[in-house]
Amino acid sequence: MNINFDKTTGIVPAIIQDARTKNVLMLGYMNQEAFDKTVATNKVTFFSRSKQRLWTKGEESGNFLELVSLKNDCDEDTLLIQVQPHGPTCHKGTDTCWKQENAQDYGFLTTLENTIAERVANKDVQKSYVASLFSKGINKVAQKVGEEAVETVIEALDSNDELFLYESADLLFHYLMLLQAKGYRLEDIVQELKSRQK
């Protein structure tokens, strides 16, 4: 890998990203020696600009960043380093240096999962369809998923794409409810699917 280290400082920025969640954890800097040590040990090592020395993340806290992959940007002067973090990344004890939880996020689907969880917790059966269905027990939630699955299949065999998408959305929504009723989330299904890859 060709890296264009800064001609004045001899360093490049290194963006640290969780290989699983894809969240950015921190930004550090590397010189050639830090890069070489990272590759040799599989533990991310940086060059400290303030102390003018190498430091391996976790050398004091034990919260190492295990190397998964290294990528160089189009100008070959910025590194993207994917890692498996062992413990919090920030020296202040947070998951990231931006005080964000390093949780898996599937965008809108995660937002929808969180909304379902909030409505279940609020138990307002008069105002919330989700709370009302959950109050009837897991058998009713599972039955609703079955009904939506049948409706989706029927629409798949028809030529009305609008109805197919509508029923597909209903199916996914109710499936997310069933997952939560069983104590799971999308991340658990993704992990199961990943475990089947060969």
Automatic annotation (TrEMBL):
Region ranges (Phosphoribosyl-AMP cyclohydrolase)? 1-108
- Supply the Pfam families for this chain: PRA-CH (PF01502), PRA-PH (PF01503)
- Pathway per the UniProt entry: Amino-acid biosynthesis; L-histidine biosynthesis; L-histidine from 5-phospho-alpha-D-ribose 1-diphosphate: step 3/9; Amino-acid biosynthesis; L-histidine biosynthesis; L-histidine from 5-phospho-alpha-D-ribose 1-diphosphate: step 2/9
The record's EC number reads 3.5.4.19, 3.6.1.31
Region of interest (Phosphoribosyl-ATP pyrophosphohydrolase), ranges: 109-198
Q: Where would one find coiled-coil regions in this protein?
A: none
Q: Where would you find this protein in the cell?
A: Cytoplasm
The record lists the catalysed reaction(s) as:
1-(5-phospho-beta-D-ribosyl)-ATP + H2O = 1-(5-phospho-beta-D-ribosyl)-5'-AMP + diphosphate + H(+); 1-(5-phospho-beta-D-ribosyl)-5'-AMP + H2O = 1-(5-phospho-beta-D-ribosyl)-5-[(5-phospho-beta-D-ribosylamino)methylideneamino]imidazole-4-carboxamide
What domain of life? Bacteria
Q: Which UniProt keywords apply?
A: Amino-acid biosynthesis, ATP-binding, Cytoplasm, Histidine biosynthesis, Hydrolase, Multifunctional enzyme, Nucleotide-binding
Q: Which SUPFAM superfamilies match?
A: all-alpha NTP pyrophosphatases, HisI-like
Q: Which GO terms describe its molecular function?
A: phosphoribosyl-AMP cyclohydrolase activity; phosphoribosyl-ATP diphosphatase activity
Tell me the CDD domains matching this sequence.
NTP-PPase_HisIE_like
Instruction: Give every Phosphoribosyl-AMP cyclohydrolase domain span.
Output: 26-98
Give the record's family classification.
Answer: In the C-terminal section; belongs to the PRA-PH family. In the N-terminal section; belongs to the PRA-CH family.
- Alphabetical list of HAMAP family matching this protein: HisE (MF_01020), HisIE (MF_01019)
What is the protein's given name?
A: Histidine biosynthesis bifunctional protein HisIE
Give the source species.
Urechidicola vernalis
Q: Which gene produces this protein?
A: hisIE
